[in-house]
Amino acid sequence: MSAASSSNPPSSSSSSSPSSLSSSSADGPPNVVQREGATLDTPRRHAHKFGGSSLASAAHYRSAAGLLDDGASSRWVVVSAMQGVTDALLRLVADARAGRDWQADWGALQQRHIEAAALLDSGDALSSQLHDEFAALHGELAALAAPVDGAHDPGHALPGLGEVLSSRLMHAALGGDAAGWDRLDARDVLVTQPGELGCAIDWPATEALLAQWLERHRGTQVVVTGFVARDGQGRATVLGRNGSDWSAAIFARLFAAELLTIWTDVDGVLSADPRLVPDAVRLPSLSYAEACELAYFGAKVLHPQTLVPLQQRGVAVRIRNSARPDCPGTVIGPDGGAAARHDDGHPHPVKGLSLVENLAILDLSGSGMAGVPGTAERLFGALREAGVSVTMISQGSSEHSICCVVRADQAEPGRAAIARAFAEAIEAGQAQGVTVTPDICVLAAVGDGMVGTPGVAARLLGGLAQARVNVRAIAQGAGERNLSVAIAAGDATRALRSAHSAFWLSPQTISVGVIGPGQVGRALLAQLASSTFDGHDEGIDLRLRALADSRRMCLAAVRLDPADAIARLADAAAPGASVDDATTALDLDAFAAHVRAEHLPHALIVDCSGNDAIAAHYPRWLAAGIHVVTPSKHAGSGAWSRYQAIRTASAAVAGRGHAQFRYEATVGAGLPVIQTLRCLLDTGDVLLGIEGVLSGTLAWLFNRYDGSVPFSALVREAMALGYTEPDPRDDLSGTDVARKLVILAREAGCALSMDDVAIESLVPEALRGVSRSEFLERLHELDAPMQERLLQARASDRQLRHLARLELAAGEVHATVGVSSLDGGHAAVHTRLTDNLVQFRTRRYADNPLVVQGPGAGPDVTAAGVFGDILGIAQTLGAQA
Ligand SMILES: NC(=O)C1=CN([C@@H]2O[C@H](COP(=O)(O)OP(=O)(O)OC[C@H]3O[C@@H](n4cnc5c(N)ncnc54)[C@H](OP(=O)(O)O)[C@@H]3O)[C@@H](O)[C@H]2O)C=CC1
Ligand SMILES: N[C@@H](CC=O)C(=O)O
Question: Where is the composition biased (Low complexity) (predicted)?
């Protein structure tokens, strides 16, 4: 749980918060929080804490000082050490103890502080104070080489010097005493004592010392040293790692702050680790409980311990980025529910996901364990004795086994401890023994909104199933705020990404790849570029990420702008062309793998190539969860075995939905032909027959052909208008129409193949086997036969139209395609331009067929049909949310 970091000093102090959380206090006595009057935007008593990343240099201290100009009447500022100083001090202590040379590092550390002091304070006072501190440190380090006398470790508190020095620098940056700022050394007031769960605060002693301190100081503007404290005997100590945040929370409570702002190098708490989930989003607000759950499960932003003093008094915390103060950050307060919506307004039961890595499962099973009181106590007692901490526990109602998840490095000691504790039972066969499953991680979904919300587990498990992630163990307590699953470490990233999108923590991005920017593909890209569909309402992000033609492909890491995707593909082909994203020779497997990006939930390939070899990839793509949309008829009308493989693959992906195969534009281009047929059949109608004009090209040719212009000239015009297939013989031979008839018949459940269709071809025998270019050169050879047919038809007052017929009767299927001479009563005679005319005769529409009619060819209408399929898939994905 972190965000993009920056070490640049911040430049502005302005900020605003969208949060509706509020808590406030007047300038009342410490430790009493009043909750009227102020809001988090204008707290009167405001505590701040700056982490080391916000205090890397003198410039950072100045910028931090600027951030405090927040209008509060009273401000306390708790500081960490300068960036890297605590680690440097720990190294100095270790070197001094081990008798290694530490003088040079001590000198460098002193120099760094003196240089910062010189920039922050023109006088000598600050430098001389720092010199004194370093001289004292020198003496204490030198003494560390001597053996330790008694239980008290003299080196223990030395790393806290970083905070003491830092508080002096911050005091100077704020203008010091002259500007009304006091400096409080926490070692003077903050009293710790040993507690059952580690170091605890002696609140009465601390409040008494603080009250004495306040008698001697103004106390309205105070710089406080983080991390350091004193023990019950008045000796200096430190609060442990994350101690500065804890100090800040302690002093915010003592100071009765309405708000504690923790300035750090991240934008706030994110919905997941952005290194694993690039689409992770900042969470505007969290409840204390949510923050604790997320923090425990790997969130680096805030340690749960920090929240305790704040939670006790209802003090809100805001995490903010000192390098990006305009970002509102994350507010953590009593009521995270007040902001149970993300920035896009979507309500989410789950606020965030976390992942704990490097774990192992310990499992004790045995038939003799059922119903035996004390088994769990014995198991966990053994782990306690072995010093093994338990991350997750799960036991089924059969009591046949108990499993728990522990740190990987504690798995073996844990296993041995359990085996010892149950040695007798194992010996007697009542327990089978302890197994260790290594390489485990735990993924947890966290959110107050999960409480009482049905379907959260279904969604998590469904998302994992879709990502083909096996769940080894599950745990959810009655609190319902945390649902944890143990999974194989190798599945971690895939699982996290899939769960993230399953809970709509990020938009349902559909990663789109387009193959074939020809007539139809180009029109589709133009429609994508100008479309008003932004998917916002559906939470859909339709994102073009790849484009390929027959030679090369352009793969964009994030997105390709449809408006210039073709130029990008062409540019990158130029020698020396430089583009951000990779354009290389076409490799369809790499293309599909890129589109099926693991960090994006959905993938879709649009095949506008019209190439049969590409259709051969569909079963594999669909099986991998990639949706396929195409205007190409090859898959729908090609080999029956491939067609079946496509149907099987598109039904087989487990989990939420399946990969869809849509091809509405194959018949009638943009007309709703296939969906009309589907609707008839799905509502229980029975198809009896189809008759009509299924070719836009042939419709246009016969609507235009009156003998005044050679037929071949019209064919050339139809090609130029983008009506024909890439090879116009596919239209003229009737093959294209036959393909459409096969597609419709198969939709109706008939195992029809191209060989079953009786096709009349308009292509003379001599032109069928020649190359496309030779065919086009010899196109005029079509003219004489067509002229003759036209004259024959006219002689009997008829008109030529190209018709397709499908008859289904008594289990028999008859399919024919060819030119017919029709009288004026036939509907096909009254079509215009590229009109397709599809008459469905069904049991319900037996006397008067259901008719779909309209333009049936051309790049724009075809692309619209393809786009409609894409949106159809997007909408079904939206509906699954
Ligand atoms: N035009 C229309 O009215 C209708 C068309 N259709 C169908 O639409 C599809 C496309 O038609 P159209 O746009 O006219 O065809 P075009 O010939 O204009 O475009 C084909 C595109 O596909 C690319 N391509 C061809 N083979 C491959 C391959 N093996 N790998 C990758 N890319 C390839 C071509 O790239 P390159 O330039 O490198 O060769 C070109 O960009 C066809 O299946 C057609 O039946 C469906 C309904 C109506
Ligand atoms: N060439 C085809 C295009 C649509 O499938 C036609 O003319 O109908």
Answer: 1-26
